[in-house]
Amino acid sequence: MDQILYEVKDRVAVITLNRPEAANAQTMELLDDLDAAWSRAAGDDEVRVVVLKANGKHFSSGHDLKGGGPVPDKITLEHIYKVEARRYLEYTLRWRNVPKPSIAAVQGKCIAGGLMLCWPCDLIVAAENAQFSDPVVHMGIGGVEYHGHTWELGPRKAKEILFTGRPVTADEAEKVGMVNRVVPLEELEATAMELAGRIAQMHPFALRQAKRAVNQTLDVQGFYAAIQSVFDVHQTGHGNALSDGGFPVLMRLDGMKDKLKNQ
Hints:
This protein is of the alpha/beta class. It is built from 10 helices and 9 strands. The C terminus is likely disordered. It is an enzyme of class 4 (lyase).
C-alpha cells in the first residue's frame, strides 16, 4: 500500500498520508515519498494550492520509532544527525517555502513529528477532535526537530506544552493563532478543499509574492536562524538519550503510540 497518495483536483494538489493502521507514523519511506509529492506539486504549473491531509482517525503520531527504516549495528549521534538533517530539517524547510499556498487538514492526534508536517503549511484547518502535542521531553529531548513552537504558540504556551507534555486542543490552538479554523470532523475535508478552491482563484504570482512577503518577514525576525540553531541543540538531546541507556530510551513513547491504533 502506498504510504502517500497524490492527486490534483481543480488546480489543487491533494497529498494524503496513508498509514491509517499505524496512526500515520512516519517511516523514512513515507517522508521521502512525501517530499517527492511536495516537489511534484511545486513543479506543476497547473497546481495553485496544496492540501495536506491524512487517512484514518489521526493526522500523525509522529516518527515511527519501531519501523522507521534500517538501523545500524551501532547508533551514533553522527548517524542520527545525518538522517534528521535531511528528513526532519531540510524537508520541512523546503515544504514551508514551496511557492504556492498550502493547507493542512488535521484530525485526531498530531504528536511531535506530526507537528513538522502541519506547521510548514501556510494555513491549518483542524477538526474539533484535533490535539497537538510534543511530549518528547519525556525522552530526554527538548522538543521535536522542526522547533516552530515559539512562533506557532507564543513563548509561554510553547514552554507549557513542552514542560508538561500535555496536548493543545483545536480550540486552544485557534485562540493562539496556530489554527485558522476549527470545524466538525465530518466537515474537515470539505472545508479545506473549499478554502483551497477560493485561494486557487487568485493570481498565482500574487499568491507567491504574498507568501514570500510573510515568510521573509518571519525570517528577518529570526525564524530561519532559530530553526537551524535549535536543530543543533536538539541533537544534544539525542546525545543525552544515548548516554541514558542507549537508543532504546527513544522507544518510551511507543506504548502511547500503540494505543492510538485502537482509538
